[in-house]
Amino acid sequence: MLRNAMFRNAVIFSLLLCFGSASWADERTQKTIEARQGLLKVVAQYFGPIVGMAKGQIPYDAALIEKNAGMIVQLAPMIPDMFAMDTSASDITSQAKADIWGDYADFSAKAATTAERAEALVAATAEGRGATMKAFGALGASCKSCHDSYRQKN
Ligand code: HEC
């Protein structure tokens, strides 16, 4: 009985330490920001080679575009999830504008547009280089559209 009570008190004490401290919240915020920035870095890793092809820096490769655009189809819906937590009150450096949480539905819709355009790019790879690069331009415009509204360069 007594040991149970001591154990319970120890558990409650530990929980209070974890959830009550400001540093726990800071750490959670930091991890959230790192995760969403990591996600966008991964998006850019798949996007980058297609930019290289568009600029003629690397050979045109329809199969690679199809693969990379397919990855962006999967990754783009993760953007709203990784931005679900409003971190605007934190002083941790980030390029995310507070407006994201002012109109999270619009932010999410922009991510959905990116996913749709990535899907259209996958389809366009079967229609030749001209159609592919046109679809890629539309995908890039969807990234820019979100950045123009919701990302600030520090
Ligand atoms: C729905 C909005 C949205 C869409 C769509 C979007 N981005 Fe972003 N992106 C952001 C925001 C907001 C940030 C800043 C995040 C931060 O600093 O916490 C960002 C940051 C980035 C970064 C910097 C990551 C870092 O911290 O190093 C890159 C690179 C990037 N985006 C590339 C892209 C590309 C490429 C696309 C399109 C395929 C894209 N983004 C689509 C909102 C978006």
Helices and strands in order:
Elements: H1 2-20, H2 22-54, H3 62-75, H4 78-82, H5 99-102, H6 104-124, H7 129-150
Descriptive report:
This protein has 154 residues and is mainly alpha-helical. The protein has a single domain (29-150), classed as Cytochrome c/b562 (Four Helix Bundle (Hemerythrin (Met), subunit A)), CATH 1.20.120. It is built from 7 helices and no strands. The chain has helices at residues 2-20, 22-54, 62-75, 78-82, 99-102, 104-124, 129-150. The N and C termini lie far apart (58 Å). Bound molecules: heme C. Heme C binds next to α2, α6 and α7.
Concise description?
With 154 residues, the protein is mainly α. It has 7 helices and no strands.
Cα separation of the termini: 58 Å
- Global shape: elongated
Kindly identify the CATH topology: Four Helix Bundle (Hemerythrin (Met), subunit A)
- Summing up helix and strand content along with how strands pair, one would put the structural category as mainly alpha
Write down the secondary-structure element order.
Answer: HHHHHHH
Bound small molecules, deduplicated: heme C
Helix content: over 70%
Give me the CATH superfamily. Cytochrome c/b562
Q: Give the total of domains.
A: 1
Annotated CATH architecture: Up-down Bundle
Share of β-strand residues:
under 5%
- Could you tell me the number of beta strands? 0
Q: Which regions contain 5 or more consecutive residues with pLDDT less than 50?
A: none
Average pLDDT number: 92
What is the radius of gyration? 21 Å
Supply the CATH class. Mainly Alpha
Largest sheet: none
Number of contiguous helices: 7
